[in-house]
Amino acid sequence: xxxxxxxxxxxxxxxxxxxxxxxxxxxxxxxxxxxxxxxxxxxxxxxxxxxxxxxxxxxxxxxxxxxxxxxxxxxxxxxxxxxxxxxxxxxxxxxxxxxxxxxxxxxxxxxxxxxxxxxxxxxxxxxxxxxxxxxxxxxxxxxxxxxxxxxxxxxxxxxxxxxxxxxxxxx
Length: 171
Description:
GO terms for molecular function: DNA-binding transcription factor activity. It holds the Pfam family MarR. The protein is mainly alpha-helical. A hairpin with a 7-residue loop joins strand 1 (about 85-90) and strand 2. The protein has a two-stranded antiparallel ribbon. Helices cover about 60% and strands about 5% of the residues. The chain has a single domain, classed as Orthogonal Bundle (Arc Repressor Mutant, subunit A), CATH 1.10.10.10. It is globular, with a radius of gyration of 18 Å.
């Protein structure tokens, strides 16, 4: 039984990619809704903690650059994660107007648990795939996310792209 639109009849790879990207987005949302992953931490909080894990303690501007988001958006995400006890925010000792954000012990532990659960689920979904096919999908997801980052993110050369981690471990 097909649960998605058929690919375009013209066999245009860009058209197929466009349709399949829409289906993939829907499937990620389906997987998220059918799990308890988002109960404590939504995708934004997860990516925020992944960025902090990669970057170390960071200010809002650095996180915004790493995530390809506006600082005000990241500020709201930080406030939401802080209210859940997933991270801490303290004044920067060099510039008390800025805040430095760090994962809390609980946030770091929860992010690791969530990452492990997402990896297990992804491994189950792709269990019948060959190692070569899984490696190829990982490369293609990475290339796609790098193309998006190159086009839309600023300062991406200085930081690892947490969005790539999300694509490698779909929700």
